[in-house]
Amino acid sequence: MNPADNPELQTALAAVRQAAIVCRSVQASISTDALEKKDKSPVTVADFASQALICRQLQAAFPNDRVIGEEGADELRSAEGAAFLTQVHQQCTSVGVECTPDEVCDWIDRGRLTEYQPRFWTLDPIDGTKGFLRKDQYAISLALIVDGKITLGILGCPNIPVRSDEPDGARGVLAWGVAGQGSWMQPLDDPDSEPARLSVTSTEQPSEARFCESVESGHSSHDWSGQIASTLQITREPFRIDSQCKYLAVARGDADIYLRLPTRKGYQEKIWDHAGGVILVTEAGGQVTDITGIPPEFHHGSTLAANQGMVVTNGHFHQQVVDAVGQHAPA
After folding, report:
1. Are 245 and 252 in contact (CB under 8 A)?
2. What is the pLDDT of residues 13-50, one digit of tens each?
3. With a cut of 50, which residues of the chain have pLDDT below it?
4. How far apart are CA 120 and CA 114, in angstroms?
5. Does the N-terminal or the C-terminal CB of the chain have fewer CB atoms within 10 Å?
6. What is the pLDDT of residue 82?
7. Structurally, what CATH architecture does the domain formed by 206-327 represent?
8. What is the β-pairing status of strands 171-178 and 149-161?
């Protein structure tokens, strides 16, 4: 498909690509000393700069559109946040954006919408803090919601291998899904390249499936994930990756299943943690519901208030996975 035929998609791709440049720059500057001190300031700077740059481009192209984002600029406007603001402003100007610190804050605050509207964008400027700080995987997620439906979604994954079969090859992927038009991917650093269509695996038996899990996750046969895997007779080594890159992993066939199990009763998932990835998987032929089998609902502002967790599969055995999740759900 040609993004030039879709103004929203063209603008959103350009915005995510620009934000990825800054995120890469900030991540490259993380020192071993900062990691040892568990200093999260680099991801904070990248979070704010990424949101500012993306909201800036959305505002210029679609001035009436609002954004439900993860960040607000109150911290940056305070005396305590002055040093952070200086760094965020420097990152924005490093990609050729002429602006003042106040403008940076205003762009960030474009993402402070919390209530549902008939048309809005949702943004996670950096999804996957642990992966980012580890100089590993993270994602920039952006999606457009119209009348409660995802019309397009983008995942910018600056560190993921362009080719799954070449893990040591070129890195950085821009992937997107458009309602009714499929899911696509191209190298982040080659915007003029022909996009490749994404497709989930053809695996038909859950026992042959591969789970997608976070890098640091590990389950025993006694915990919820382990019990689900045992019921489905899954024995393959999981595909480990952080952030919404897990959605991309399912969409392009690196894995067959991704589970986001509720961490506690009453927790409501944030829409920016899922919207970009959901349409990527569904347009690649997969299926996404919550753990009870209900499709994700984007009518409730900043949260998926009607849903519990998330079940993402290639679509061939989705109900079997949902049933296994329910069978072992904590009382």
Report:
1. no
2. 999 999 999 999 999 998 766 555 566 788 889 999 99
3. 220-221
4. 10
5. C
6. 94
7. 3-Layer(aba) Sandwich (3.40)
8. antiparallel
Q: Are strands 310-313 and 257-260 parallel, antiparallel or unpaired?
A: antiparallel
Q: Which of 39, 65, 129, 136 is catalytic?
A: 129
Which two structure tokens, joined as six digits, stand for 125? 């400027």
Residue with tokens 């481009």: 57
Tell me the pTM.
0.95
pLDDT at 56: 98
CB neighbours of residue 180 within 10 Å: 7
Report the distance separating Cα 26 and Cα 46, nearest Å: 6
Q: Assess contact for 291 and 326: CB atoms under 8 A.
A: yes
* φ, ψ dihedrals at 60, nearest 5°: -65, -40
pLDDT in tens, 217-242: 655 445 898 899 999 999 999 999 99
Q: What angle do CA 21, 25, 28 make, to 5 degrees?
A: 135
Q: Residue 147, exposed/middle/buried by CB under 10 A (0-12, 13-18, 19+)?
A: exposed
pLDDT at 218: 56
114 is catalytic: no
Active site residue 273: no
The DSSP letter of residue 308 is -
Residues 6+ positions from 309 with CB-CB distance below 8 Å: 259, 260, 261, 262, 269, 290, 291, 325
Fold of 3-197: Fructose-1,6-Bisphosphatase; Chain A, domain 1 (3.30.540)
Name residue 7's amino acid. Answer: P
Task: Please pick, among 11, 44, 47, 254, the residue that the annotation labels catalytic.
Answer: 47
Tokens of 175: 């992937």
C-alpha 201, offset from chain centre:
20
Q: Which amino acid is at 8?
A: E
